[in-house]
Amino acid sequence: MSTEGFDYEAAIVVVGGGACGLMAAYQAGRRGLDVVLLEKDSRLGCNAEIASGSIPAAPTAHQRRAGVTDSAEQMMGDILRKSGNQADPDIVRALCERSPELIRIFEDELGVAMELNTDAGRYGFSALRLHNGPGRTGAPLIQALRSALAGMGNVTCADRTPGAGLITDGSGAVMGVRAGMRGEQRLGAQRVILACDGFGSNAEMIARYIPEMRGVQSIGVQGNTGDAIRWGMELGAAVAHMSGYQGHGLVCAGYGTRLVPEIPQLGAIIVNRQGERFAREDQGYSEFAREVLAQDGQTAVAIFDQRMVDVVARLDHWKDTVASGAVKSAQSLQELAAAFKLPPEALERSFAQCCGDLPDPFGRARLPAPAEAPFHGAVITGAMVHTQGGLVVDVHARVLRPDGSAIPNLYAGGGSAAGLSGDRPEGYLSGNGLLSAYGLGLIAGEHAAASLLARSH
Predict the structure, then answer these.
(1) Is residue 135 a contact partner of residue 316, using CB atoms and an 8 Å limit?
(2) Helix, strand or coil for residue 61?
(3) Which of 152, 313, 315, 408 could join 173 via S-S bond, C-beta 3.0 to 4.6 A?
């Protein structure tokens, strides 16, 4: 395709205005380069904005103050172990080693008050290392990056201007991006960073790569159509882990909200409509989605008590869930069982497995079972949050071909790049998505900028 006749030219064009794209644009912009950020539609939000905003990082000052001993190596081990050793160890190491820097950037450069989540651990974690902004949602992090970019005169943020394809020269090197609803604009670029999300809203790609989730609700934002992955594949890029995804087994059926992951970790009991437990409740919420979807009606009932609610009551996601009406309350377990039409005898047996004399067939850790009135419950189902497969990149976030060579001038991160979770939902460890998004955004923006600045000297 001809490289002449560009409507606009920039040093770097970033496609996608979520966590990865914003961080990439920030890293390149603060180095003084001319950056254009294309965003499909910020009104749709991004997955990082509606998520809990949990960034795993180690070691950090927050951990030290809390008496938590941790390291990048320990964090790397947890991620690789959870992925079944399918994640690329070089990528995992690069992200883990840069993780404390992410927390520092948000605190020291962007003014976000970060905290270490000490309310409850996460399945697969050997130490407390999830760091959050205010209210424990992702919105303050995204807003801080947007505000920072708005103050940079060398960064142009083009909202409601989706990327529509890549422009290459005769050798296959990327030279720019087509943009606009019909691809009517041609933007020249010395470097292009693909920072779109995955393909959770693309029914055709779901049917092809993740058939078990065909027709299952996706709670990610609806603009995730896999565009960047397809563009890369058209240029001969390698892809990996296309069957991988992050599930969520704690979605409040019919309410558009979800229980926070702390609830099962604090000891909630989850039963099917027959009042029977069907899996260990404290497993990862990603793989738990499959367990819930296998039950009658693809639903289950989570039961928890006031002690657990008191721990999470201040969280914005929890407030939204309560406001939605998804949580029912009662002064006794018998009343709560009646409210959800659960057989009381079966429910008693389920409780006995967790805190009584019966052995637990699922091997759950002995957690305090719901015991303090008032008792609470919610009907939950399984859903998909976002896909984990994508373009293969190196430790500098450059997009690679199957032979390991880099496609010239092309970078990828976030949902556009292969994630850290391997081929299955059980490979997902809490925070993998944001670590990959913000981390690869940092790395891509930094490397793309450095490569151009080095060439100019």
Answers:
(1) yes
(2) helix
(3) 408
pTM of the model as a whole: 0.94
Q: Are 393 and 417 in contact (CB under 8 A)?
A: yes
Q: Which helix H or strand E contains 395, and what residues bound it?
A: none
Q: How many other CB atoms are there within 10 angstroms of residue 389's CB atom?
A: 26
- Is the domain spanning 247-384 CATH 3.40.50.10230? The answer is no
Q: Is 85 exposed, middle or buried (0-12, 13-18, 19+ CB in 10 A)?
A: exposed
What is the mean pLDDT, run by run of 10 residues, along the chain of 457 residues?
A: 75 97 98 96 83 93 98 98 98 98 98 94 94 92 97 96 95 96 93 95 96 92 91 98 97 94 93 95 94 97 96 93 97 94 91 76 81 94 96 98 98 97 96 97 98 85
**Shortest CA distance to 100 belongs to which of 78, 72, 128, 81?**
72
User: Boundaries of CATH 3.90.700.10 in the chain?
Assistant: 247-384
> Which part of the chain is CATH 3.50.50.60?
8-244+388-456
Question: Is domain 8-244+388-456 in CATH 3.50.50.60, yes or no?
Answer: yes
